[in-house]
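Sample intake — Phytanoyl-CoA dioxygenase
Collected from: Bdellovibrio bacteriovorus
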Amino acid sequence: MAKLSNEDKSLFLKHGIIRLRRRVPLKLLQKIQSSIRTELERLNIISQGKISSAKIQNLSVFQQTGRLGQLVKIGRELDQIISTDLIDDMNFLAGKKLKPVQLSPQLLLSLPHRKDWSLDHLNWHLDLEIPYHDVIPGIQAFVLIDDLKVHGGATLAIAGSHKLPYSNKPESESAQKLLRQDEIFRPLFDGAIQNPERYFRPKNMSGIEVFLVEMHGSAGDVYLMDLRVLHSPSINATKNIRMMATNRFVLT
């Protein structure tokens, strides 16, 4: 398997996120897919291939992912999804050795939400307090367990947002506060977005390219994200179940 290049590292440092294609064996992913579907049937969430739990399907995007993650339990094959090669890649990108926050990766599942896809009222957040100095505190790996179409519920990330707090030193402000002050990005946090596609085109903010990334792709693709990047679950507007797994890796 090809090693990441210095160019890959430069792009990661710049954008805070990189996509690696087909990095997990398909045979392993098929076992995990089967285990997830078996669990969903056991829990009466799906029946004969159709969604049968309106109670879970009607939860908000964030609540549904959390609830399914609590309910669905699968075997040890999930522990194999982030290989030592992937960990080596993360160590290379971070420039330091990293360790996993959790022993096992976390499942990220979402059912079709029975609503149109939009960017309104999502849950943009960070999972840690960012460091004062511009250093990578860790990396989060997102693995696509199954093919994931555009608007299929993939995690969204605001590329470049990890650099914003350091753009105006010494008066540091959070990325979210700076984005709320921007005419283009403010609606991401306030709702009522008229033209969602504009957010996927880079906008220059204090010399930093800022744009949305939707983590869609093929089974086995992996997205590696700087832990300082703002991200959110999204609406699953397709007919398929979104299947991803994630784990965070921090400095040892």
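Post-analysis note: The chain has one domain: 17-251.
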